[in-house]
Design brief:
Blueprint: E1 4-5, H1 9-25, E2 32-37, H2 41-51, E3 56-66, E4 69-80, E5 88-96, H3 100-110, E6 116-124, E7 134-138, E8 142-143, H4 149-155, H5 164-177
Parallel strand pairs: 1-8, 2-3, 2-5, 5-6, 6-7
Antiparallel strand pairs: 3-4
Helix pairs in contact: 1-2
Bound molecules: guanosine-5'-monophosphate (5GP) and magnesium ion (2 copies).
One magnesium ion (MG) binds next to loops.
Length: 178
Amino acid sequence: MVEYYIPKWEEIEEGILTISERMLSDDFVPDVIVAILTGGVIPAKLMSDVLGIKSMRYIDVKFYKGVNSRENKPIVRAVYVDNLENKKVLVIDDVSDTGETLDFVGNIIAMFNPSLVRTATIFVKPWSRKYPDYYYKVVDKWIIFPWDKWEIVRENTEAPVDKKERFLEILKKLRKNS
Ligand code: 5GP
Ligand code: MG
Ligand code: MG
């Protein structure tokens, strides 16, 4: 049985503010935020609003198929990146597990000649071989975020989330109609 960690919205806010405070005490204010799709989008939006950074880019890369099952190689679906030359870049994702995604995205970003690249995730797994420069908390369970709970329930209907019955009804209707 998979054990889950299910942060509430309150904890997400706490994480984003804590990371922002740490960046400021390092005098690090990025020019551009690069969000890793799709889990990094909401953390990146929150961070951009806290720091007042309007410039956002996106990289669509996927290593995972589902809870605890991984593709054996990275899948890059798209790179929505330009104008990073001589810019300070912050790469954001929701969580770093092995660290491969951040590593991989770091290599892609480097090709755009930024002056500095740092990474941030809200959570990191204790076994990660490369910790992000900024993170809020170390968690050793599978995390269900407010923004990916339905993705997780789709794959594992046993996942313990709120409002599951309504979602499963919607899913049933969708499947009947298709
Ligand atoms: P890594 O490449 O560091 O092993 O994995 C990072 C990516 O896998 C993240 O972008 C995230 O989408 C996904 N991931 C890793 N661990 C978790 C987790 O505990 N919960 C969720 N929801 N996604 C995870
Ligand atoms: Mg995800
Ligand atoms: Mg992801």
